[in-house]
Amino acid sequence: MNLEKSKTLKVGICGYGTVGSGTLALLQGNAKEITRRTGVKIEVCRVASRSLQIDIAGVTHCGTDPFEVADDPDIDVLVETMGGFKPAYEVVEQALKNGKHVVTANKALIAERGMPLVELAEQNGVTLAYESAVAGGIPVIKALREGLAANRIDWLAGIINGTGNFILTEMMQKQREFADVLAEAQSLGYAEADPTFDVEGIDAAHKLTIMASIAFGMPLSFENTYTEGIAALTPDDIAYAKELGYHIKHLGIARIENGWVQTRVHPTLISTKQLIANVHGVGNAVLVHGHAVGSTLYNGPGAGAEATASSVVADLIDIARAKAQGLSKPLVPTLGFTKLRTDLRALTIDEIETEYYLRITAQDVVGVMANIAKDLERHGIGIDAIIQKESDGQHVPIVILTDKARESELNNAIAAIESLESVSEPVMRIRVETFGL
Length: 437
Ligand code: HSE
Description:
The protein is an alpha/beta fold and about 425 residues long. About 35% of the residues lie in helices and about 25% in strands.
């Protein structure tokens, strides 16, 4: 294909780690097909990376200063795959101020510091795209902002951290140790630079914050997202849950009801009969419920170089197509709405209502089960199932599934149980959820 100069989209990549290098490889490896889709040649002219020692085949300028990319008048789009806030925020801000489009994979940046960048992009009539920031290769931002645009979205729930799902899957299927699986996730390029972001749910909270904003049309509000990690889960919990017909998944859940929004990330028991409970390994999946469409499910690889690059390149293709059409402004508002709701109130975790799995380690003495049941009853918490596991001679694990309860009441009941003389360890509490699919 012979394309005139105006039909070339010039790209600069800042950050040449897993995602940056994966993006270049995909653009170069699938160049013909991409040009056939867009009518525009996407050319990576610059790469900037903190540690770049070498030239990269096919790239004219390789350097270490990302601001050179942001300030280069020849560059149409800056791809930000550096991660973190510094210098990513300033680099993106500078590029937007210079009238460049930005494609970023940086969920922390968008979730925590995104609002001024969104406003800047809109003032300057440029695109700020972030498909790759959420759920790796799954086009869930596109689904929420475009495919489901006719709907009022009531709730969404997803496995949105590949590393965490990989760890839980390996622990469940192969009884492997937590630390050993985490090390493997790091070597496979799934984990964040600081893997506590994966394990403690911060990465998932970033992604949930972004999805909630574009699902409900509200400002990004990371500070209202409740976050609980997976490090406290034991192989026993995974096994007991399975025995009861559940898998434990690390879920992000966002729900809107009567003007209240809840956004929470925590381990969750899900019936093995539900599709999302059977998404394993590095896979991510997001369930979205729209008032017109009902429940929909998006599934695919949630991390890794090629999967994430697939989303980065999809964003570049959108920009290339807009260029080919001569559009002067992005067609889709950055957060999916031209006006964001500011009247919504955030529900705290104490105020949610759900079912619970409790594991109580008690002394193996007569009457202990009855005392626990009494404490739950006193706080108005119904029991759906209760099983006493085999004693080790001194202690006995008691596993309970409760009926739906308000979390503040459940916490009061747990405090009462923990104060029983026969209960020797903190109670393990995991929320249980049921979805439409
Ligand atoms: N560390 C992230 C994950 C990478 O494991 O999901 C993709 O966002």
